[in-house]
Design brief:
By secondary structure, the chain is of the alpha/beta class. It is 46% helix and 16% strand. It folds into 2 domains: 1-30; 33-287, TIM Barrel. It has helices at 2-29, 51-61, 74-83, 108-114, 133-149, 168-178, 189-195, 201-208, 226-229, 240-249, 267-287; strands at 37-40, 66-69, 88-96, 103-104, 121-127, 154-157, 183-188, 212-217, 256-258. Helix 5 crosses helix 6 (168-178) and helix 10 (240-249) crosses helix 11.
């Protein structure tokens, strides 16, 4: 009798515990940002190390994929990524518009064709200067967009401090003039810190957000040379988590890349540390949503 009298209570207790666990599952699932996090190829160490070994490190650390830099030997490099089932988020290429004729990076058109049907973004730098640079820049960007559109791809202007398109405002101007539906831009934290004013963040992001296809982040100080503006995530005085909160509050759901250019030391140590910081930041930002 004592056994049977306790069974209903036991069952009720199990049911309450089960419901409590199930109720917590959505909270656990939502404890990080939905944005995919990938790493730039410049953070993977010297190219003397085989790409397969460098991409295996990316997979081991837990990134969602990689950016590949340059169109040279692209078929071979893409094959390596495919063998590892590694998603290629971006292909980083450039054009030179400082003189006529415009110079497109060798192999760019062929590399774009090889990316047919993927979700890879063509990230495009625009270099050069001169009285006709604006027209050549618009014409070149239209050409790359048309190549990409044939294969279902998007193009994102990559503002790079010191180049013709160096600030988000430059990218927006070219976007408006080019009038291509598959054209957007990257928002690069380190280049924005180098070339712009922090007080402009809200206004720049508000105008740029409808056109932002990709964002790059890294640890940074507020001012300084590239060694201070590109550090492992978690280093530096700039509030990167606060930047992410602003970005996400404005509705950004796209991929976020880790910039690592010329960070000294072991790539695996740097990337592992940055990944730990990303997970902490992601959880922190998600918890406040």
């Amino acid at each position: 009798m004592r056994t049977s009298s306790r069974t209903p209570g036991l069952r009720l207790g199990v049911a309450v515990i089960t419901l409590t666990i199930l109720a917590c599952l959505p909270v656990i699932a939502a404890s990080k940002l939905s944005n995919q996090f990938f790493v730039f190829e410049d953070g993977l160490g010297p190219r003397t190390v085989p790409l397969k070994a460098r991409l295996a490190m990316v997979e081991r650390i837990g990134f969602d994929g990689v950016e590949l830099e340059g169109a040279q030997n692209f078929q071979e490099r893409l094959n390596v990524a495919d063998q590892l089932k590694m998603k290629v988020f971006c292909l980083y290429v450039g054009v030179e518009v400082g003189s006529s004729p415009t110079v497109f990076e060798p192999g760019m058109r062929q590399a774009i064709r090889l990316l047919r049907g993927r979700q890879t973004i063509i990230t495009l730098t625009v270099r050069g200067s001169g009285p006709d640079a604006e027209k050549r820049a618009v014409d070149a960007v239209r050409t790359v967009c048309d190549w990409a559109a044939r294969y279902g791809l998007r193009v994102a202007l990559y503002p790079h401090c010191g180049m013709y398109v160096s600030r988000p405002e430059d990218a927006l101007r070219i976007i408006y003039e080019s009038r291509r539906k598959n054209l957007g831009m990257c928002f690069n934290l380190c280049h924005w810190l180098m070339c712009d004013s922090e007080s402009n963040l809200q206004s720049v992001l508000q105008e740029a957000m409808p056109h932002v296809f990709m964002v790059s982040i890294n640890g940074a100080d507020h001012h300084g040379d590239w060694h201070r503006l590109i550090q492992p995530l978690g280093s530096g005085s700039y509030d990167v988590e606060g930047f992410l909160k602003t970005l996400i509050s404005m509705g950004y759901h796209g991929p976020i890349g880790l910039q690592c250019y010329q960070i000294p030391g072991s790539p695996e140590v740097t990337l592992s540390r940055s990944m730990r910081t990303w997970r902490e930041m992601s959880a922190g930002v998600a918890a406040e949503r």
